[in-house]
Amino acid sequence: MTLGNVNPPGNDAHRIDDGVPVPARTTPQLLTEAALAGPHLLLMIGRLLKDPRVALRRKLVAVGVAGYLLSPLDLIPDFVPMLGQLDDLVLAAVAVKVLSDGVAPEVLRQYWPGSDDAFDLVSAVSEWGAEMVPTRLRRLLVP
């Protein structure tokens, strides 16, 4: 899912010119980018769920995980410090990974409204979450 510095045509807001150093972002800019990563991720997921190029099985995994996250039932109850939220984070990351692995990187970047850096961060978190789940279980989700 990692795309690096790929920019779709017409997206000059995040264009990188190798000949000119990119000015450092200010702390408020970085905080804004971090705060928007979640909404941008939800927007990308919504677009992927509507995309006919994404396999139905991948969409069902994502919707199933969303249902689990919204459900009051948990594998590890939320009142257990840190672990209660960690299972939700790992499952959400796996759902993003399963959904995003079903399409070409160009499609992901087309649907991501934020910066490349935020996209790379979301990609890294979904990779991490997928690594936390045993391989056998991941293969059950999407072979």
Poorly predicted ranges: 1-6
What is the beta-strand fraction?
under 5%
| Backbone structural class | mainly alpha
The radius of gyration computed from the alpha-carbon positions, rounded to a whole number of angstroms, is: 17 Å
Helix proportion: 55-70%
Distance between the termini: 17 Å
Per DSSP E runs of 2 or more residues, the count of β-strands stands at: 0
Largest sheet: none
What is the approximate shape?
Answer: globular
The helix/strand series, from N terminus to C terminus, equals HHHHHH
Quick overview of this protein structure:
This protein has helices at 27-50, 56-70, 83-100, 105-111, 116-132, 135-141. The chain is mainly alpha-helical and 143 residues long.
Structure keywords:
single chain; 143 residues; mainly alpha; 6 helices; globular
Could you explain how this protein is built, in words?
It is globular and about 50 Å long. Helix content is 62%, strand content 0%. It starts with 26 loop residues before the first helix and ends with a helix. The longest helix is centred in the N-terminal third of the chain and has 24 residues, at 27-50. It has 143 residues and is an all-alpha fold. It has a domain at 55-137.
Describe the SSE topology.
Blueprint: H1 27-50, H2 56-70, H3 83-100, H4 105-111, H5 116-132, H6 135-141
Helix pairs in contact: 2-3, 3-5
